[in-house]
Amino acid sequence: MSRLPVMSSSKRVLGSSSSSSSLENGQDFAPAQKKLRKDPESVKPQAAATVIGGKRPLVAATRAPLSRTVRGVGAATVAVGPSRGVLKPSIASAAAKGGNVKQPAVSTGTKAGGGGAPRRQAWDLKGKVSDMEGKIRNYQTKVKSVNQENEVLKGSMVQSQTRVVEVEKQLEKQRNQIREYEGELQALSGVRDELEKVSSDKDTLQKELSNLEVKYKVMETLRDSQETELQTLKMKLSVQESTLARLQTTLRDTEEEVRCLKETVAQQKDELHAGEMERRRLHNTIQELKGNIRVFCRVRPLVDGGLSKHIQLPDSDIKMITLAKTEESHTGKTADTQKNYNFSFDRVFGPKASQQEVFEEISLLVQSALDGYNVCCFAYGQTGSGKTYTMEGEEFDDSRGVIPRAVQQIFKAAEKLGAQGWEFTFTASFVEIYNETLRDLLYTGKANKRPEHEIRKSTNNEVTITNLTYEKVSNEDQVLGLIALANQNRSTAQTAQNDRSSRSHSVFQLDIEGVNAGRDVKCKSTLCLVDLAGSERMLKSQSQGERFKEMTAINGSLSNLGIVIAALANKESYVPYRNSKLTYLLQGCLGGNSKTLMFVNIAPETDSFGETLNSLRFASKVNDCVIGTASANRK
Description:
Radius of gyration: 67 Å
Coiled coil: 129-271
Binding site for ATP: 381-388
Number of helices: 16
Keywords: ATP-binding, Coiled coil, Cytoplasm, Cytoskeleton, Microtubule, Motor protein, Nucleotide-binding
Distance between the termini: 154 Å
Protein name: Kinesin-like protein
Shape: elongated
Oligomer: single chain
Region (Disordered): 1-49, 101-125
């Protein structure tokens, strides 16, 4: 109980002494800390000081005790408790945190006084405080010595930096000298290369000089020979001049002769053109005398060959055909009677007539298309009578029909006329009339996107079809390819009378435009070739369903064609062309500015007598028609 006041008073004394010691330390260390702040580069020379002294940096060693001197006193203050001897560990820990405190100092610091002093008792706090104050004074003395050493090192560092600056200046100066030397060295190396080059050029020039001297000697020799040759050429030149004068005289005579020949050629070209125009005029006159609408009759042979008995073709007359029909007596008392039906046409072809023989009769009519006249040729007859064979034929040359032969003739004639200055352009189209609907046979798109077509009549009375495919063609093969495409797209079907019966009317049209630039003449025409669908009777064809609908449309359009033909034959004021698509499309061919040819095809079978008689009667009406005189479309 009596120790408590002493402990409290000692604590106060220790606190005041520790605070006073800390103030003294702060005053002593303040200049050093200010110097360190002012000179931030003072850390670098410490490495040199470490090397010289063989110890750790002194500045760092002094700073650690400065920041922990008060803590050391505090440790001693805490160690006042009599039950714990914690002074030695606290001092050891403080020494470990400081950079300059050695291990032996810790062992001595725990004793009261120093080297051989006895250890103080735990209650002797005043003695311990005095020991600690002694240690603090020792540390302060060491700090002052370290600061002095630091000042010395700073001075040596400044000198070293000054020396380094001087060394760097000398180094930079030497580098500049090295660069100058290198520049001089490069200049000297360039001079050396140039010297070598000059010496090499000198050797080359010397060699060239020697070569030129040799060439000069050779040239002197050549000069002498050339002078000799020049004298010879002068003599020849005088001879050539005399020859030239003679040839010039001959040339003038020849030019005069060429001029005369050119005039003759121009005159002959004029005569040739006049002859071509005269040929066209006479050709047209012949066609007009034959009739602007003509009818040819062709009899199909029987399947086993020959001719049926009810058809008679006189050998002496190639324009006559007779149908003979034997009628039985209804009473049986009189003999059977024979009734004859006689028909006369522009030409009748028997079953033995070839495709070439048939085409020769219409070749002149095809020529009119190139002369600028519209030409139309169509085939009429019952189903199975040979219309398609007549118009298109087969792939073999002997069996080719009217359409491919007409195309071949057109292109051959156009090539011949090209020598007279004519240039032709051709445009082909192919359309069919199926169930009174127009279809483009050259259409290659999707079936569900097929466009609709309508017949339009322009202001100059030309009949055109909307949305139709028009192909530019330049040779026969292109046209034949289009015809093959059209045959694939055309509507055909099997009936009781024909395995491959045409169920539509097909119209092939070739537009022709010719220009003769030298004569300033133009012509435009159309070649129209039509294959009509066959007329048929329901009892014979046994058409049902869709075939019956097709048969009705075909017979209706052919009936309207007959009505138009009758109106033209009777010279009626109104002709019902618009009653069907067929007559509306063929309006220009039937009653306009066109040369028209009709083939009437008849079947030789006996059971076809009625259809044959109707076809021949219809053809006779057409033959009796008189249409206006066709005129050439020339400009």
